[in-house]
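Changelog entry

Holo records now carry the ligand SMILES as an explicit input line rather than a separate metadata file. Below, a converted record for pyridoxal-5'-phosphate, shown in the new format.
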Amino acid sequence: MAGYVPGYQPPDIASWIKLNTNENPYPPSPKVVEAVLAELGSDGASLRTYPSASSQSLREIAGELYGFDPSWVIMANGSDEVLNNLIRAFASEGEEIGYVHPSYSYYATLAEIQGAKVRTFTLSDDLWIERFPERYEGKLFFLTTPNSPLGFAYSPGYIERLAQRCSGMLVVDEAYADFSDTTALELVRKYDNVVVTRTLSKSYALAGMRLGLAIARPEVIAALDKIRDHYNLDRLAQAACGAALLDREYFREACANVVATREWFAGELAKIGYSVIPSSGNFVFASPPDGNGRRVYDGLYERKILVRHFSDPLLAHGLRISIGTREEMETTLSALQDIG
Ligand SMILES: Cc1ncc(COP(=O)(O)O)c(C=O)c1O
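Structure line, unchanged by the conversion:
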């Protein structure tokens, strides 16, 4: 099988404007740094012993934040871990999982590892899922909302109709939900087949720590607990996670800054003739007037600006550009004007 190819992480990262993997341009909360240093101590002695196996205190913090009992929460070593474990829990060899194309193609790789079958659903021009069956019998259906790479979000009403039509689990991957104003969290309470996954990689600026979580019925959480690595979150990650989730003011301000820059940048792109899909994430999908995404990607690359170009025929006309600081986006805009 072919493995998943993650976005490029250049070794000389500081010499690039890096807008290719939807990281946060701001550092994490200073309270995260304090908490990690405190956990480490001056001699690192805390690292001798294993961390909490259940990350129970984090389940409590996240439960309170999202309005669920801690028994409805599981913490993960990046949301990728919990996506993997969902497939391991629910889809055995030969069983089917479904997802939307284009969205996060890692679901397909994870399914392939399990020997599960993969069915993809395409999008209509108005971005609805095409030919979704009245009753979808696959074991899992993954819905990325806001969608990456396209940026649009589904309404809770639309997601609810999908939940009703799935006989297996509906996994709502809300990696980018903190930059939008919708969430499917209420549906977890209402439907026993809905799981919501979140990550701290984007909105909390902690991609380098590998932290994610899922909210689902306690029976589902119990199944996921059986499968995961017992010590899936290391001590430093647990310290960072608690501090990040609790610093609401810093979080709100960092997200608001990204959203404000996104709106400004999308408007400027439209002024220079790009077509831009309205985005609810920390990135935009935009196409140059000649529909040649690769040409513009190369032009930006020469100027040490890294964005994401997908060679897939459905996406090759455009680019996914993560939202950096206002200054980085001003430089990117001038480069795009220069490239023409
Ligand atoms: C839609 C989506 N889901 C999940 C992930 C994985 O996030 P994490 O860093 O928490 O593993 C990503 C990362 O880019 C993503 O785009």
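Spot-checked after migration. The chain has a mean pLDDT of 97. Residues 22, 78-80, 104, 144, 148, 173, 175, 199, 201, 207, 212 surround pyridoxal-5'-phosphate (CB under 6 Å).
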